From TrEMBL, chains A, B:
This is LacI family transcriptional regulator. PANTHER family: HTH-TYPE TRANSCRIPTIONAL REPRESSOR PURR-RELATED, LACI-RELATED TRANSCRIPTIONAL REPRESSOR. Gene3D superfamilies: 3.40.50.2300, lambda repressor-like DNA-binding domains. CDD domains: HTH_LacI (cd01392), PBP1_sucrose_transcription_regulator (cd06288). Keywords: DNA-binding, Repressor, Transcription, Transcription regulation. One of its GO terms (molecular function) is transcription cis-regulatory region binding. Residues 7-63 form the HTH lacI-type domain.
Amino acid sequence: MARSRRPTLADIARRTGFSVPTVSMALNDKPGSRIADSTAKLIKEAAAELGYVADATARSLRTGRTATIGFISDEVTVTRFAAGMLRGLLETAEQRDHSVMIAEVDHHPERIARALGILRSHRVDGLVLGMMTGREIALPAPEGAEARIVLNGISEGWPAVGPDEFPAGQAAVRHLLERGHRRIALIGRHPERALPSVSTNIPVRLDGIDDATAEAGLRFTAEHHGDVWEPELGFRGAHAVLDAAPDTTAILAVNDRVAFGVLQAAAERGLCVPADLSLISFDDEELATMVRPQLTTLRLPYREMGEVGAGMLLDAVTSGAALPAERTLLPLELIERDTVQTI
Amino acid sequence: MARSRRPTLADIARRTGFSVPTVSMALNDKPGSRIADSTAKLIKEAAAELGYVADATARSLRTGRTATIGFISDEVTVTRFAAGMLRGLLETAEQRDHSVMIAEVDHHPERIARALGILRSHRVDGLVLGMMTGREIALPAPEGAEARIVLNGISEGWPAVGPDEFPAGQAAVRHLLERGHRRIALIGRHPERALPSVSTNIPVRLDGIDDATAEAGLRFTAEHHGDVWEPELGFRGAHAVLDAAPDTTAILAVNDRVAFGVLQAAAERGLCVPADLSLISFDDEELATMVRPQLTTLRLPYREMGEVGAGMLLDAVTSGAALPAERTLLPLELIERDTVQTI
DNA sequence: ATGAAAGCGCTAACAG
DNA sequence: CTGTTAGCGCTTTCAT
């Protein structure tokens, strides 16, 4: 039953007796052009009857704009953080009447170049590169003139949006301090300071942590290093740290997964969290609310990165203004749940 | 420095002295048309020098095909399962030289209709609707002639791909049976059989479970009902079930999150999994490998749904053949980890 | 083996 | 207020 050909402006024009441009104007009702209200109504009715939907490819060819932004991710669609970033992006894009074309890449530069080329061939109005881990990355020289932005990571020549890690690190320490903790252990510092190509975010987070402890004239009771931030590290780290400094009252874990491991170790030692041991971490992934007690943690603003990134990009696209050269930093919010207790 | 205008076929034509159609032919090197190898080479070199990328909007306008498929999800981008489905889709699409345009919707039919309209205006060659939960849903009558498919869910008039729940339910029971368990408890059956608009998958899974137990002449030692499949249910369920039937040797949990709760309850009771209590569940979400012991579970084929769905869709798009009217069912794989022990 | 002409569906510029 | 003309960049006849 499907009409073999979809209706075009010409169909509506024929049906109503007006010309094609008139139909076009009426349907787009721009403020400037004055089409008689009566004809506009007629035309719209006809369009609705025919089930007309404008052909975006034709429109784009003519206007040079596609109302589409491209999203490339280095595996972000495959991780627990993808959701927020993509969702923020999609929502903002949709609110501002833009569609999103998505391409997945791995870490290989040639794959990224390929994805960039494909998106460019589709004439996207702007490009968003979302990175799962905050790393520095070498991107192909931005040849086209499209607006572009990188989320979470850093790349030479690309405007960027990322999490504001330094104050977050401070906040975590201060939260513990304010609740009376003076004997704090840290789990998850890199064995050596990470290269920017490996991580740009966590080292800054640790700088913030160190800054706040130094300011309070404090040293950690113990530290357990590591750079594979999975539960295993927290599990072993908690045992190590608690063996070394049994009077520790609070543990600062570099992320939620590590904190999860800490929780298991604490249970094994017969320690009750938070009565016997407080715990604070970073990320606020779904896991944080699945465990009991639920984790007090600093939420990484993935969703906001998507929203703000898309917003800035679309501002630039719309106004033609340049994107800020400075990296835009978004705060991590402290989510107080059940793992920190005042002593 | 950016060239204000991107290079077109005409630019290459001017530069090489050939005509625009010749350049087009040479660049697309179709089997049929015979362009001299020498000129093809010349043209390709020129194209590369200019950094030419074909304008997809122009091409689409002319050919009527966009080499793009649309993906709509009812919140799938926001859940733990999104990753696999989206990734399978993206990979298959990319392998077959198609791009993906994505739109996020909630459950409101009018939102879906809107997304459908937008994607249709972009003239996508095919439509994939991915649903997070396997439900039956009423979709706007498919007006356009584009190929379409629904993943995980069911909708009148839409070809579908979904998980093969019945044999998976059987397999879970049989796995326990084969390992000597005869005293099994079940956690997570709906209080009453779910409506298709709520869930089409889990009830079938339970049918499979019931079928295999009946076949073995077995009854569950105890059951704990519920339809909010979160850890809390498993936690309370395990306690209830173990209180009611302390001789239970294995628990069948309706999903991993529930199993996670079971693990916590077992620990609380001083029960060691799997030595004192075996446990099997469904989904294989990331959580399954984060807990210790790691969960033995039946993996939901989200990624495969994406792959197979995209594959079928693209077959239809390419060949013009119709998609199968039958729902295509994909197996759940049993992932043996550490929560089931032979007794 | 290559060129000339036409047209996909739309919008912008200019008449009237 | 509305119609005419033109053209975005590409591919597809049809000539040569």
